[in-house]
Sequence to fold (238 residues):
Amino acid sequence: MVMPTPAWGAYVSASNSCLILGCMPDIDGPTQIVLGDSAEVDPGRPADFVSLLRVPDGEVRVTTVGGEVLLRMPAPPLSLVEIWRSHPKWPETVIIGINPPASRSVLPAMLPTEQATRAVLDLPEGTDRLFLYNVVMADRPGVFNPWLSDRTLASGLVVPIAPASKLEVTDAEPAMSNDPVFHAVLPTPNRRVGIFPTDRCVMLRADTAAELTRVRAWVELRPEGAIAILALTPAEKP
Fold:
């Protein structure tokens, strides 16, 4: 199993063989976790997150960050995972449904490599563009707002996206059949990208592998709604 690289601010991070989910902080109370066949646990609305998961030993396990096994169930070697949360950031209830993939054509693509990471989070309502900037450690919510600085805006990228309810960020080459709606290169000398939605402070910070980062964006319609897909991959120096 390969653990995904946590992306600062992300509520779901994934590799091909592991998912990391944010839950309620201990100080605010427990999180109820339900694990079962999707048909049995489906609460009657589209899932908040859908992914393919490799299960080579035939068992899905839900554990704490310390490795304590909370729940387990048999699963096919390639499983479709659906996740429902009672709250987009601090859920009191997390429902995890497992199914064999019925039709590969309607499923999200597997990440190309086991080491690749995918992070998913909800976009603020009305977001129609993103701003990407080579952030530093001091850039944190409530402190740094790039939309207020013309100098900062000139050094980053404004990525137009159609209205979407979710954002998926990956550090792998996505298997997309259509051309991206945006394609550019962002200088990242400190190898860190901050992602800012419309008129908001930073919502996610991702580490990058190079001092130049290729940025591509797609908007894809899925059963759970429209999702903006952002790929951050190394770019070669000219």
